[in-house]
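Try it yourself: sequence plus D-malate, in.
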Amino acid sequence: MNKVTVNGIDIAYERRGKGTPLMLVHGFPLDSSSWNEVIPSLEDKFDLILPDLRGLGQSTTIESQYTMSDMADDLAGLLDHLGVEKTAIAGHSMGGYVALAFAKKYPDRVSGLGLVSSQAAGDPPERKEGRYKTAADVTEKGVSVVVEAMTPKLSADARVQAFVRGAIEKQSQAGVSGALKAMAEREDLTSLIAAFNFPLVLIHGDADALVPIDRAKEIKAAVPSANFVELKGAGHMPMMEFAKETAAGLSSLSSS
Ligand code: MLT
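Structure, out:
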C-alpha cells in the first residue's frame, strides 16, 4: 500500500481506477480490503481512494483519545496529498460516521455521500458504556474479544465470516480500543444530514444485526431525495454479501 504522513500518523491507502473521485471508508474494526469485491465494478467510472483509517489496517495510531473529526482530518490530509479538492465519499458503518464527520467539516469538498450499513444517530448511554467496557477488555485481553463478539453479527455467510475474522485478528489493541472510544463519543448528526445539498445514497441490508435497517429508513424519511438501496437478506457486510448491488448503488455517486 502507499503511505503518507498526516497529522503525525502514517495513513496507508490504495488508489484505483479513473473518473469521479470516490473515497471508500471502511468500518470497524476492518480495513480498506473490505471493499475488494466492489472495486472491479467501480474502477471504470471512479478514481477510487481507499484509505485505512488511523489505527486500523496498515495505518499507525496515537495513544491519546481521538474523534471522528480527527479521522476526517486525516482523510482531508490524504486528499490534499493526492491533489483531490472534491470527492464523493462513502463509508461502511463506522466509515459512515467518519464520512458524516468529513461532510460536516468539509462540505465544500463533498460531491456526494454514501452510507453503507451506517447511521447518523449517536450512541445511547448504554451502548456508549458498552464500548468503553469492550475497549478496556481489548486492552486487557486482546482483540480476540472483538473477533468472537463481532464475527457472527457481521454476516451469516461463512465465507464473509472467515474474511472478517482474519481481518480483525490482524488489528492492534490500541487501534481497536481507539476506534471504540471514538465511536462512543461521536455526535448525533441526524439534523445535519437533511441540510446536505449533494446526492445521498443509503445501502442497507434488512438482516443487519449491528446497525438495524430502521436507522437508514429514518434518514430516508428525513431526506426523501436519498437513493435508498434496501438489500433483502444482506447482513452488515453488503459490499461482500451483495457486491454487485452495492456497487450499483455507489455508482449513483458518479458525476458522469
Ligand atoms: C462497524 O461495523 O463499523 C461498527 O460495528 C459500527 C458500530 O458499532 O456502531
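One thing you can check immediately is this: The pocket of D-malate is lined by residues 27-28, 93-94, 183, 210, 236 (CB under 6 Å).
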